[in-house]
Write a structure and sequence with these properties.
2 copies of one chain form a homodimer. With 495 residues, chain A is α/β, with parallel strands linked by helices. Chain A is 51% helix and 13% strand.
Chain lengths: 495, 495
């Protein structure tokens, strides 16, 4: 992949000087249209060999364009708030909104490549990172992002020459560190690992662009033109929604689904409830005060039929906890800032730090439930959501989050009974709206969506817990008990 | 202030049990109305003596109300992202939006009181903190926030008894730490400092409520009722805008203002410009790479007449810097999330960490300029903004921020010339809109607003730099030079 970038590309000063003014005007124009349309974000990744002009190019792009609408993110050492969350959290929080350009200097490629070069990871781990990156970038482009991935390259002797010449000049000497020479010694390994990574991550939607870094004029002009062309192409030819190539989901032909296996008649006596409630609330409380808990975090999410008892169950959990420890995130319509970002952004922003408990009252599953049934998004949007969600949850679990997903199931009759009851009781009046009655008419559609959701997102690492909730007390105990079990299991694994 | 809270208040079980169900329904009702109206945020501070039931009360409020609309913030040790910003940053980022309740467990009172009790600060420093707190809370209530400040109190012997009884019970033993007994030894000092602080911060808009903590039933019922009453009162009687008691601002009777002192004819030759530009860009670059710079941060804000040359000046600054080091914040209309917060919130969220440079293209001064002239806010809103801004800037400077405020002044004729020029040049077309022409018609109103702004916010710690900008090059050099000088001065001070 690097051959063409070792040919010694050059541009003479006259051609460069003639080209630049036009290029700048065109870039400013494109940037203006981008801001006006505000229909997609631009993500520029800057990676490559040390000394190949990465920093210079970033500075130049800022100089040529309007820097007010560019955000540059230098991904140095993570802060403590970042370290206590999945590695991708820092990138999610830095994603540019629609209409803006985000330049990542040091990107999600940096750590996987360097770790492998330094022998801190195995090839199999690199392969896994590559797979995750491909899925992440696919999600971004599916969400509409324009991704431009630059690799600035230098042949081995060119890098040596470049470092030496930087060292010679008093003005630039500071830029060459010992680490740079250490890296230089690893050049061959670095080239090999990078080559592999670039090959495996150069996809149709987000291909790599390798730019030879030896000649500043060539490098700058190439980078500028690539950005311009990518922007212009995207701005002028609005991407048509691609047709999804999967067959539509089919209901099971015998009409048997996971909910048929639930014994909805399960209930417990008031006495058993009182004993068990005290037992499991106490246990839960103790678990969160265990020193081992400080290395974990808990995300419990609640989905379920309307009037399924989410609120009541959540209160039984929080009653066991110190209020300083948990955070409840009720999911409502996305805000303006959230709408300018990929779908999962508004959930990423609420990921707890170590030792925290976050409870989602409804969740990212809205995409494949209400948004699917009510047609708030296209079929391909909710179809791709299944794997995006699985990827998201895998990252949570990988970073020591105990993720527990509850579906509170009630029968259609029980729902009717609860709706009527709610209408009668004063302080519950706000829990029942005309929308609830409308949703009820779509009971079958929702059931279909729920079954597909469970089929496609109940994974080994994050299985769905189906809760028979016709009896509220039975449900509450099952939920508390499950939470305790999962936390205990996670603690044992860490021993 | 604590006498009434040492009387041994008690509530018997029967009265308590009779009262609670009604109280809970009423609280839920009020909370529902709060969410529906979404016209103000509720901020509850929980402070007081250790063992007086602070944590229990927070948990109870969460149990009684709908915890999904309450955010509890335990203010423990600050994260590194928090430590590198003014101390109040962590509170600003945690403020609840309109319609929600934020409970601060450990508040802006905690550190000033404990530092004084432990002898780490002098009385004069406490007095200063108190003054800052009063101004901060006044800003919050002026912005519409409802603040409820709880102080849970225990007499000295009651505290001793409480700690001993917690220690005796195996279930609660963990809650008593050595630090608690250390604090107990300081009880008298703590009482004295707290009494002083409470007295000085109990204002008409945000009075303290002292609650005796000995009897859990009394304490809980009192807290619940106070929250209910405060909420209900505010919800049912929308606060009428108070009339501002200051006289309206008067233009100077001789029509002489600060702008008359500017020599707008100043200009420099192209040759001087080129030499000076290289000199000061180089100097600025070196300064930001000085190890001492890592303990500073820079905020440069740009205001000025339309077409005053803000963008061009900003580009001359950023051209001197590595793009990883700076961030430009163009100020546009506030987003939905920003509108649900106090005015200054949207600026606080962009405060840089140590070593960072943040450039505001327009700023918090919009309140006293465009919002005043265009009547987007009331007279009392912009009148109070002057002191709110001064308080804000004082905090920035106190936490080692070099704050430089530039006003780019051009003459009315020069503006006309630039407007016409912009209309002619293709890639500058987006810089001139119908709005610019409309604003121009209000030239005198804007000039009046600018003079008042300079008079009221050009302070010793953050003076305005008025830049004669009819000659763009003169302006650019003055700006770069000033920035260098101010950073050097700040570095010298830290030696």
């Amino acid at each position: 992949m690097f051959e063409s970038a070792e040919l010694g590309h050059k541009i003479d000063k006259a051609s460069y000087d003639a080209e630049i003014p036009k290029l700048r005007v065109a870039l400013l124009d494109a940037q203006f249209d981008l801001a006006q349309q505000a229909s997609f974000p631009v993500i520029i990744l800057v990676n490559g060999v040390d000394g190949a002009g990465k920093g210079e190019t970033v500075n130049l792009l800022n100089e040529w364009m309007d820097p007010r609408f560019i955000q540059v993110h230098a991904m140095g050492a993570p802060s403590d708030e970042e370290r206590e969350r999945p590695p991708m959290w820092r990138f999610w929080r830095a994603l540019p909104p629609k209409g803006k350009i985000g330049i990542f200097f040091g990107s999600w490629y940096t750590t996987p490549i360097l770790q492998r070069v330094r022998g801190k990871t195995k090839t199999s781990e690199l392969v896994q990172s590559i797979d995750q990156i491909n899925r992440f970038e696919k999600m971004l482009t599916d969400e509409g992002a324009l991704i431009i991935k630059f690799w600035f390259h230098l042949a081995k002797d060119a890098q040596k020459k470049r470092l030496k010449s930087l060292e010679k000049d008093q003005k630039t000497r500071w830029r060459v560190t010992e680490a740079d020479w250490e890296n230089y010694k690893l050049y061959d390994k670095f080239r090999k690992v990078s080559e592999h990574t670039l090959r495996e991550t150069s996809t149709a939607d987000s291909p790599w662009v390798v730019v030879e870094g030896t000649d500043p004029r060539y490098r700058s002009l190439a980078a500028g033109r690539i950005v311009l062309e990518a922007l212009r192409k995207r701005l002028d030819h609005q991407v048509k929604a691609r047709l999804l190539k999967v067959a539509p989901l089919q209901p099971p032909i015998d009409q048997l689904d996971v909910f048929d296996t639930l014994n909805m008649a399960q209930k417990i006596s008031k006495k058993t409830f009182d004993t068990e409630l005290e037992k499991y609330q106490g246990k839960f409380n103790l678990l969160t005060r265990d020193p081992k808990f400080r290395k974990l975090s808990v995300i419990a999410l609640f989905e379920g039929s309307d009037a399924g008892g989410k609120g009541g169950s959540i209160r039984r959990i929080t009653a066991a906890l110190d209020a300083r420890r948990y955070r409840i995130i009720p999911i409502a319509a996305p805000t303006e800032e959230e709408r300018a970002q990929p779908y999962l952004w508004r959930f990423w922003r609420h990921i707890p730090r170590d030792g925290g408990v976050t409870i989602f009252d409804r969740s990212w599953y809205g995409r494949v439930l209400v948004e699917r049934v009510e047609k708030y998004c296209s079929e391909q949007d909710w179809m791709r959501a299944y794997s995006e969600i699985n990827d998201f949850e895998e990252q949570l679990v990988d970073s020591n989050t105990v993720l527990v997903k509850f579906w509170l199931a009630i029968s259609k009759d029980e729902q009717l009974r609860r709706f009527k009851e709610r209408e009668k009781i004063g302080f519950k009046r706000f829990k029942i709206t005309a929308e609830d009655w409308r949703n009820r008419e779509k009971w079958d559609d929702y059931e279909r969506a729920v079954c597909d959701m469970v089929d496609r997102t109940s994974t080994d690492i994050a299985p769905w817990v189906l809760v028979e909730a016709n009896d509220k007390n039975f449900a509450r105990i099952k939920i508390l008990k499950t939470l305790c079990q999962q936390i205990e299991a996670a603690m044992k694994k860490r021993k």
